[in-house]
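Hi,

I'm pasting everything inline rather than attaching a file, because the server keeps stripping attachments. The sequence lines come first, and each chain or strand is labelled.
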Amino acid sequence: MSERIGVYICHCGTNIAGIVDVADVSKWAGEKLADKDVVVARDYKFMCSSLGQELIQKDIKEQKLTRVVVAACSPHLHEKTFRNACKGADLNPYLCELVSIREQDSWVHTDKAAATLKAKAIVSGGVARVMHHEALEPLRVPIHPATLVVGGGIAGIQAALEIADAGFHVYLVEREPSIGGHMAQFDKTFPTLDCSACILTPKMVDVGNHPNITLLTWSEVMKVDGFVGNFAVTIKKKPRYIKIEDCTGCGICWEKCPKKVVDNVFEAGMGNRKAVYVPFPQAVPKYPVIDDVNCTYYLKGTCKACEKFCPTNAIDFNQKPEEITVEVGNIILATGYDLFDARRIPQYGYGKLANVFTSLEFERLCNAAGPTGGNIVMRDGKTPPKTVGIVHCVGSRDKNYNGYCSAICCMQSLKFAHLVRERTGAEVYNFYIDIRTPSKGYEEFYQRLLEEGTRFVRGKVAEITSMARIPEEEGKLIIQVEDTLIGKQRRIPVDMVVLSAGMQARQDSKEVAKLFGISCSADNWYIERHPKLDPVATMTEGIYIAGCVQGPKDIPASVSQGAAAAARVLGKIQQKEISLEPVRASINQEQCSGCRICNNLCPFNAILFHEDTMVSEVNLALCQGCGTCVAGCPAGAISGTGFSNEQILSQIDGLLMLNLSRTAVPVES
Amino acid sequence: MSKPKFAMYWAASCGGCEIAVLNIHEKILDVDAAFEVVFWPVAMDAKYKDVEAMADGEITLCLFNGGMRNDENEHIAHLLRKKSKIMVAFGSCACEGCIPGLANFSSIKEIVDTAFTTITTDNPENIRPQSSFAMPEGNITIPTLNPVLKTLGQTVDVDYFMPGCPPESHQIEAVVGLVIEALNGKAELPPKGATIGAGTTTVCDDCPRKRNLKTIKEFGRIQLMKADPELCLLEQGIPCNGPATRNGCNARCPTAGAQCIGCYGPAEGVVDYGARLISAFASVIDSNKPEEIDKILDGLVDPAGQFYRFNLAGSLLRSSKYAQKG
Amino acid sequence: MTEEPKPFEPVIIGFTCNWCSYRAADMAGTARMKYAPNIRLIRLMCSGRLDPTFVFKAFAGGADAVLISGCHPGDCHYVEQNYKAMRRFHLLKRVLVQMGIEPGRLKLLWASAAEGAIFAAEINKFTEEVRALGPLNWAQPGEQVSTPIMEEVTA
Amino acid sequence: MQRITIDPITRLEGHGKIEIFLNEQGNVTNTYFQIPELRGFERFCVGRPVEEMPLLTNRICGVCPEAHHMAAAKAADAVYKVEVPHTGKMLRELLYSAFYATDHTTHFYALGGPDFIMGPDAPVAERNILGVIHKVGLEIGGKVIQMRKYGHTVVEMIGGRKVHPCTSIPGGLTKGITEEQRKEIEQMGRWAIEFAQFSLQAFNDIVLGNKTYVDLILGDIYTHKTYYMGLVDEKNKVNFYDGKVRVVGPDGKEYVKYEPKDYAANIAEHVEPWTYLKFPYLKNVGWKGFVDGPESGVYMATPLSRLNASDGMATPLAQVEYEKFYSTLGGKPVHQRLAIHWARLIELLYAAERWVELATDPEITSPNFHAIPTAVPSEGVGIVEAPRGTLTHHYWTDERGVVTKVNLIVGTTNNYAPITMSIKKAAESLIKKGNVNEGLLNMVEMAFRAYDPCFGCATHSLPGRMPLEITIRDAQGNPINTLSQFCD
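And the predicted assembly:
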């Protein structure tokens, strides 16, 4: 049956009309494309204006249009606009095609004739394509009101609390024995210098006590099935060997435990813990964990000191790992970051030179609850440094390691500098490439540091060595650097060096991404749906990201993202059901031969194979509409709405209708 | 009233289609009963001029096999089209060019040159056959070869396509049966342009072999390995065209331990057969590293030849109005 | 419409993914970067949607070259589908060579949403390369089974 | 000058065309038999993996695809220097014997036989399979169909398909047969032997019992004293699938016996500008034109040639018939072309016997039907006896086993020169002073059918089907008279 197509060419002021002869294009479309069912072709100053939209709606009604092609700007700007306009005139929005003659044509070409010819080609491509469009309805799926938050750092905590406070249930999964994340390890927070624990602990306690939060620490997500609104998540609870229902967290067990273990996680190797332990005093939950790798009982089969002394008989050496499955409608990933491993830069001597510290070690050093009770001393544990060098951008902004800026190191280093001067009066050198203080109060903090007399050396540190050349350098760490402000090489002897190591994605981020069916950037940060307009959503419906998992950021940014993700989830939950873009693949069961080639094409596991009927099928809600399986099916049994073969093939024909290369007089195909 | 008239003709073909029709054995008598066979070089005597003398559309059913290799093939294709109500492109050659269509990988000059410079060819004057040659006694002529081998559909309007090299006898029986029924008003003929005498999906649908997820680290050659007789050939790395090839043959070759070579052409609605195989084979490659992908692909020694073995003349690219000019 | 005969102007069909390369093209536009008008773009959701049929269709319809573009490897918005596109590209290229179409007429271009400049530059480069190749030659189908050199451009 | 054009029934169907030129006196000066078809396999097989050659060259001819399948498979074996296991060899030869029995049956009963059974002068309408059924008895029709069915069943069991088998690969086959299948094959084989004997009996009664037929056979029109070629086993017995190529001279003595790989040292192909088909001849004798005798390299490759070129048949019953054949026709070699029909029936019997021999071999069901090649592929020649002549496939490949060069000398091609000669001889003896004897068509036609030319291989008409029409034009080329006659 023949269609009635309306074609609308936008001038976009002079943006398009300045290069493309829009009148000629619409005239041409009206005449030359008449046999392609074009019944009306107009050009107008601003199609996207309400007047422009009304023009289309009027034609739809009066001219009984069945299809609409708008030639204007990029679909990424106004596709929705014009689809809604059609909807307003009771034409199914998916029967409207927006083709770009601005970003794709008038803005990038100077030859008016060529640009006009190309505009015609683009329009005829759109007309040919729209012929094969079909009326589509969004898919609707119900939303399970519960939410899974993965990661108990500040971003995850914030997200969990926001949702729980709104009255919906949250499962918060943390793989360490306690929530808190990196923030719990810090001493002060920049720029306000309020105590990290003091502001974090109350939130942790809230989480622990919240009736709407099921806290699953010492646990990991094993499997994710289902799709937005209806995920089934399998979680492994590692054995604590503690009966939490009996444990009071009195602490006798770890007092009595004879086995000391170096704490590489929370204390960053700066201090010890016992084989049965809570990572830190304010831990939530308060229950300890028996470290079955180091526990004497598990090593030798005897000891059980903790069991003997436990007043409530809460010790249970026979606990086994346990798997539980929870139903959730949405998932927020807030799995945080790893610290850059300073050992990777040998010339900075970390690991070889005793008094070279990483930023995290230094945080513990400053922390009142840390190994030195907050005294800033050298490795010998007593001598305070007289001079301290703080190196910025360690592992960041460096092609050899991570090209990106870790965002927090400048402020962190300034904070360190301040703490050093405040507590030791030592002289402090900051070695920086640029000082970046983009947020509220940051620049002021920098100014304050300058007034405090901290020294700033602009230059990338080449080497940190203990090889003295002159007596003054004896027994010191010498920082070799080119001071780019005075253009001189300098050797600055110091007692202590702090490496402001940057952030990088968790070493297992790729596996985790695969587990949840989302994508990583080349640096393994998780990719947001849109870098500006949709920073906490992912390409996978129902899965959101918050905090450093999306990229390096400071505490305020992480908290806002946690809250933002929560808001997105709450919005979804309130809708009760969600409507999905109908751009989806589907398999014609009659034509599927069950060859199974498509089965491993889908990264979202949306294609399942029925062993009984020997055919494959697409789970519409899981399908993200990429179309890879459509292109992959050898039997041509898979079709993709919105980007069907007919649509693309006809668009190709349309685009080639005016064929420059073959002949001066364009070939009419 | 007189019986409906039947014709069968071969152009550039091997004769296998005729044999396939003879292989319906006693069923051939049904054809004889239902039709007046007016033109069938293999089976009976009739003159070309008899056909010329017929009224347009006088022949009810014409099974036309063979591709368009020379001008004579085309001439008679046009004639039979004119004289026939139902023109069936019968067999792979007529439908998509078949093996002789592989000639379209080469120019006609390359083809003739090769044939007349083989090691046993005694050709000191480097002679090439001439379409018209003056002998002392007078001029004698032979047909001119087309620059490219064309399918029947690229030459004349075709009503139905019946694929296969050759079409399976049980399919021929079925189709003939259907036409006879239709003529007696007992059945409906399929819509014009339909593919008849075959399934709509692909060979895998009929293939008895076990199949799992397909991930290939290395493609193999059937003679260089001990293939598992139970397991999908492609999963074993053997380049089987089954996944993209229209079913209707009962998966004969894979059942006999040989890879499907694709004689039934593309599945229903497929635009380009080879493209489906390119996608399919690329899809099973288990690597994301360009170098490794290339290493794996080296295992497919003749991709175009494999993917377009029967379909080259009928391929989207070779059907282009530009390609047809040769 | 009639025009005076003019020198060979190639027509290139370009396929972009919705998330990276099409946005790169948008960016080139927004930044008013100039490039040759010979390319005509088609938007797909993902380079993984690129069916070799589209490429054959473009050539059969008279295109002189085809550009396939998508997100950088490891950067795909559908996790890893651009790798699948890459596999197809490698095989497709070999087939085209056997079909007598020069490897230089098919190009794979990785471009992120931020790489408008590179996108524009690559289009200009490609257009010149194709201009140098001249119109697609249908008369002489090739038969070399040699492995084509991969021309993968990373933008 | 007058000119006679003999075309196949459909003038525009390029299936062979004859030009006869007469001088002013109206006597034949020259004849041309043209093959106007060329498909170019030698070209487009280049670039294909060698294991596909048995599948691609199948499509040279749908009438004898088994022959090309076998020749190609053997050439591919040779390319890989791989020895096919005993069972593999037997399976291939079993398939091939069944095919032979079928093919010879089809030809004798549907195409060639009617000439004799009905008599050369019987009306056209009767000289066909129906006529034969009528004369020999109804059951024969059923038997012929039965024979074809059985043959195809075996081909399908071993070859995977009825037409264009697919199971032979370098080193053997992709599958074997089960004991059940073997039993079935054996039974059909035994039936085939009876059928062959029955056929020989019929030939005996109807033809040899009839003096005019015998005279016709022994007549001079169809006599050419050429060389004869055939494949023989180590005992110089006829073999279709394997062995050495043996050529005997017009005197019947062995002229040469060579390994398939040495064919190029012995065979060359002459080229004429007025036809797409080449004329093979014995290289070391040389091309002297369309003439016979010991000085001319023209040779024949047909059932008769195979018998002439051998010292006998490898199976008992066939051997008896072989001896009878030569005692009846006055010793070796037999030069009369029409004797090919009889020789064909003897081969039919041999094929059926061989069929049973192989089907009853204890090794035939062994799973050891394929040997994996280990050598680096390079070059190889495969030769089998196609029903219509010695069939040669020669491939060169690169180290991956991808074909780089191909040479094919196809069965019927061997006989291109002899056929041309027969035509000329028939024409000369029957066209005198411009008056064209009605018998000409029949005689020429019989010559064709004797050779059983498979132009499915060379052009594409089916074995022996060379239905003819003669147009006689005056000097201006205006048709004066049209004579036509068709075989059926």
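The longest strand of chain D covers residues 389-397.

If the labels don't parse on your end, tell me and I'll reformat.
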